[in-house]
Design brief:
The chain is of the alpha/beta class. Helix content is 33%, strand content 19%.
């Protein structure tokens, strides 16, 4: 859409088909994130355990473009998962924090 005399197409959108691994021990949040990402035409794989996710990443070395991970998980701290991904793979990781009001 042209405004003020010049047009610039949007170039900052992520590509369709982005391969995303989502890791969260909360099945409700896992499903919500999966649905939202699929609406963006992303290929989504989910895991409720960090160790399982790490195994997936190791088995499918070039199978993912990005990881979205919860920080507080029962089997492995999300920061530990981030450390493994950083040392073993060249993948961006988004860590999500849950804020709980008490």
């Amino acid at each position: 859409m042209e405004t003020s005399g010049f047009y610039s197409p949007r170039t900052d959108a992520f590509p369709a088909g982005l391969r995303v691994l989502v890791v969260d021990d909360d099945p409700t949040w896992l499903k919500i994130l999966e649905k939202m990402l699929k609406k963006c035409s992303y290929e989504v794989t989910t895991s409720c355990l960090a160790r399982e996710a790490l195994d997936l990443l190791r088995e499918r070395r070039d199978g993912f473009d990005i990881v979205i991970s919860d920080v507080n998980m029962p089997d492995m701290d999300g920061f530990k998962l981030l450390e493994h991904v950083g040392l073993e793979m060249d993948l961006p990781v988004i860590s999500q924090f849950a804020v709980i009001n008490t």
